[in-house]
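Continuing from the previous page of notes. For each protein in this section, the sequence appears first, followed by its structure tokens. Read the first protein now.
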Amino acid sequence: MAESKTKSESDSWQFQLRMTLAPELAEQLRRDPAGGAHQALAEVLRRHRATLQCQYDAFAAYVSKAEQLGPDAYPLYHWTRATIDDPQKQAKYLRAFTVYVDGAEVYPAELAGPLEAELRALVGGDIEQVTKYDTNPANNPQPPKGLQ
């Protein structure tokens, strides 16, 4: 009788890739999330139906929406507002980009793995780092108490 495999909990996690870029490339890619300012990056993104989102811009959009609709409905409003108001954190997040695949900010391992490998091959020079995160809550830090 064949052994049946059960899906383990870790198989259900989704993944997200993030990149840290040199300031000049980051500024160019904020205006062009398809990666046109870096030919090799643009080709990898195109092949994987991926785009980039500057984390600072995403945080600023979240804060703006929360302020329009009322921050009580946005649990991370205070933490995010404090983050974008801090000059050191602003500089950090202006260089940090989230990789979206087919418009999604998290995606299955079968999409994340090959994309991660191709992005890591580009590290050096203007592309400083590629990091993979999963959706397992145990692996993700929570905002400090009092800033939520």
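Done with the first. The second protein uses the same format. Note its length before scrolling.
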Amino acid sequence: MAGAQAEQLRGELASLIRKLSYREGKFTLASGKESSFYVDIKNVSLHPEGARLIGRLTWQLLSPELFGGVGGPTLGADPIATAISLGALDVGKVLPAFIIRKEPKKHGTSQWIEGRENLPAGTDLLMIEDVVTTGGSALKAIEKVRAEGFRVSTIVSVLDRQEGGEEAMRSAGIKLVALTRIDEIRKAR
């Protein structure tokens, strides 16, 4: 039953991404690479229906008991981490969200990770990315989290562009769980 429900949620999410976030044209990606399409997941993760789908689908595919927190690099991961944290609460698990800053705070504690006080020391954290292309930015974020004394074994991405990110994660010993893949988005209506 859970498999069928996950596939239904995946289809609903792919359709919403296609409708709200998928654009064709000439674009430059964060990596500097040129692309004939662009997917701005924030249009979906900031939409109430999209946030609900992301949270529910994550816990159809994973078990919240495995992690001590959920988060990733600001800005793309912020609403996704919140959606997944609320999705965990829906299944009876308190899973705090956290945010990785682009640079450490210039005042106060000078920390990289916001919400750190809510995370059990040394725990395995669920990392989030809105879109994985080559995996480079995700691996940099994972290094920051590990440098703070946490473990990372799994990353959830709302979209895998299927351009080498999964292989890069595997090579680094990280499991990539993609809620959708670009081939599913292109087929969605």
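What the second structure shows: The beta strands are 22-28, 34-39, 69-73, 97-100, 113-114, 124-132, 151-160, 175-181. The chain has one domain: 51-183. We return to this in next week's lecture.
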